[in-house]
Specification:
6 helices, 18 strands, 18% helix
């Protein structure tokens, strides 16, 4: 009997994840769709953006041992590493597209400047010590609680409650409705990363190479999940989600080097 109990105990230890964290649940019911359900009441203080001084991979950042989850974040210039998305950390602006004159000039020439700088962002408010609120809004949208804004991470497009691919300068169409510009391949199937908000939960989702999605398909997914709000992060080859359970990498063996991330601290 003792030998049987020891065997069962050993199996439990073997099957348990190497590092479990209360408030973070991994859901994997569909091939290529990897979902993390985060209880913001338990982990709100540990969820924040991260900006790399030099472009780096999600895998390299995760291997520092400081984080239980690392996922790619906002947009950047792959040639120069320049900023394209706003990022705020601990109340201080760390990234601004206005620091990237070359890319912003190019965007102005396509007539999308206002749309790009006003793309949607995840906002994290510290309303009082230990109490956090998570919302998604366009960058220049006012908020009664903005005085309590602690972190923000801009990406896009917004997926719920509305799909804002055109309004945020990802897609342009001519008078006949034909797509004339698709800056992030939103009309094509690519690996994707998104976040969703429902109740007290923040959902972080990676669609891997075996489940590529268009922007419209992401919108439909967010609708089926009944997310109150949802936002796409940078996708395609930038899609990377690293935890103890999974390593989702969409480019090369280590993943694409990117500028910003969303992380959950250990």
């Amino acid at each position: 009997m003792k030998k049987l109990l020891f065997t069962i105990f050993a199996m439990i230890i073997y099957l348990a994840p190497a590092y479990a964290i209360d408030g973070m649940e991994y859901i994997h019911k569909e091939e290529g769709v990897h979902i993390y359900k985060i209880d913001t009441k338990k982990l709100g203080s540990k969820i924040k953006p991260y900006v790399a001084d030099e472009l780096t991979t999600a895998k390299a950042l995760y291997e520092t041992g400081n984080y239980s989850l690392v996922v790619n974040g906002g947009f950047f210039d792959r040639e120069t590493g320049g900023e394209i998305s706003f990022v705020m950390i601990d109340g201080k602006l760390k990234n601004s597209p206005f620091n990237n004159n070359k890319t912003m000039t190019s965007i102005k020439e396509t007539g999308r400047f206002k749309e790009v700088v006003n793309r949607s962002e995840l906002r994290i408010f510290e309303l009082e010590k230990g109490k956090y609120a998570f919302r998604i809004a366009q960058h220049f949208q006012s908020d009664a609680d903005k005085i309590f804004l602690k972190h923000s991470l801009q990406a896009g497009p917004m997926l719920a409650p509305r799909y804002l691919a055109q309004e945020e300068g990802f897609i342009q169409k001519d008078n006949e409705g034909n797509i004339t510009l698709d800056s992030c391949n939103m009309s094509k199937r690519r690996p994707r990363t998104i976040i969703g908000i429902k109740g007290k939960y923040l959902y972080i989702i990676a669609f891997s190479m075996s489940k590529k999605m268009t922007g419209a398909e992401l919108q439909e997914f967010a609708k089926k999940q009944r997310f109150r709000q949802a936002l796409a992060l940078d996708g395609g080859g930038s899609t990377s989600l690293i935890t103890d359970e999974v390593q989702i990498i969409s480019e090369g063996t280590d993943g694409r080097k990117v500028k910003s991330f969303l992380v959950i601290e250990r």
